[in-house]
Amino acid sequence: MDNATRACKDIVNNLTVLYNKARQAAVTNELMDIVGGAEALK
User: Fold this and answer.
1) 38 phi and psi, to 5 degrees?
2) pTM for this model (two decimals)
3) Along the chain (42 residues), what's the average pLDDT of each consecutive run of 10 residues?
């Protein structure tokens, strides 16, 4: 049971990292779109 618990925690941690990276990439893309639009208006 202890091994299964540790394995589950590892999986959750890995998925959390993947989710955070994907979320950060989406935020970065949105910011680049905003900056690009602002530059186009100049």
Assistant:
1) -65, -40
2) 0.75
3) 95 98 98 94 86
